[in-house]
Each structure stands twice: as C-alpha cells, then as structure tokens.
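Please produce the structure of this protein holding zinc ion.
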Amino acid sequence: MRIGYGWDSHEFKRGVPLRIGGVALRHKQGLAGHSDGDVLLHALTDALLGAIAAGDIGTHFPPSDPQWKGADSVTFVNEAMRLVREAGYAVANVDSTLILAEPKIGPHAATIQARVAELLAVNASAVGVKAKTPEGMGTEKAAIAHVAVLLVEKPGRKLLAHHAAEDVPQPEIDKVVEQVVKTVPAPAKSKSGGKSRLDF
Ligand SMILES: [Zn+2]
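Below is the modeled complex.
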C-alpha cells in the first residue's frame, strides 16, 4: 500500500474556460495556467506521482516546454496512471477538497466524481469530491485543490527495483551495513587527552 498527496492552486482569469476535474464548467472566468489550469487534475497527478515517489508534475511536464501550453490536463493524469501501473499498483481510493469562492461545486460534484473515477479506472464510490469556500483566507481570486490517494499492489505484481526495497532479504542489508561501517574511519585522536581533531 502507498499513500500519495497533492496540492495545487490557480488564479481566476477572465476570458479563460473553466475546467475542474476534467469537466468544463460554465462560469464567467476560468483558471489561468500554462496548461488548461485544471487545479484538481494537477493535484491528483501530484498525488499519484508522490505515491510512487516519482517526482512531481513539474518534473514530468515542465512549464518551460511549449508542448504543454494549453494542454488538456487529462494527459498528465494518464501519464501518472501509466507510471503507477508500471510500478505495480492500482488506485484503491482518492479523496479531494476544492477551496474556491465560486462557482458552487455541489451541482457538479457527481459529474466531476464520475470523470475522475473514469480516469483512475475505479468506481465512483472510490472518489471523494468535497468543496469549501475560502472563509477568512483571502484567496477568493484563486482555486485550490488538495488530493489524497491510496494505491494497492496489483495481484501478481512485479514491483520495480526501486519500489521493492522491502523485499531485500535481511542478510543482504546486514552485509551492506557491515561494509559501510568498515569503511568509516575511526575518530582521530590527538596526543593531548584523546580528543578528536575537530574538537577545538
Ligand atoms: Zn496546476
């Protein structure tokens, strides 16, 4: 089992379409960003990558790369899911919280839930979509998303080497530790009082 967590924020901007959780929402302004500004899918991508310790959205899709300009953020989630599967895992469930002044997410929550579930190949009941308004936070001009994800090993999995540290037999680890201990030099002693040279 692996846990992942992601966070993202984008500023509202007029004249930009609003997309949250892969769903187009009718609103007077959208979220500015190098890609389509889908704050929820960005936090989800980071949560998935974080769960397998595979960096973050910026390392896989650098904003400096023109190919991601205006990109559909579904691409990011799909790539993160490819890495998750390659590492031998599947999504157990995901939970999310959106923080934004408007539009109201309630009427769209079920649509967003279904879309995210589809992207992660899970049932809608495995996707939590919650929303709050930014009371007293002063972030009315932005949308913020928090996402937590739980991954489970796929049956008959073959984990990648860097994810399989726990499978290394203990005697092997002991041997490595022994080697390291042997190569660390003993503290140097001076003639006066046996103090280390570093103790001035
Ligand atoms: Zn983002």
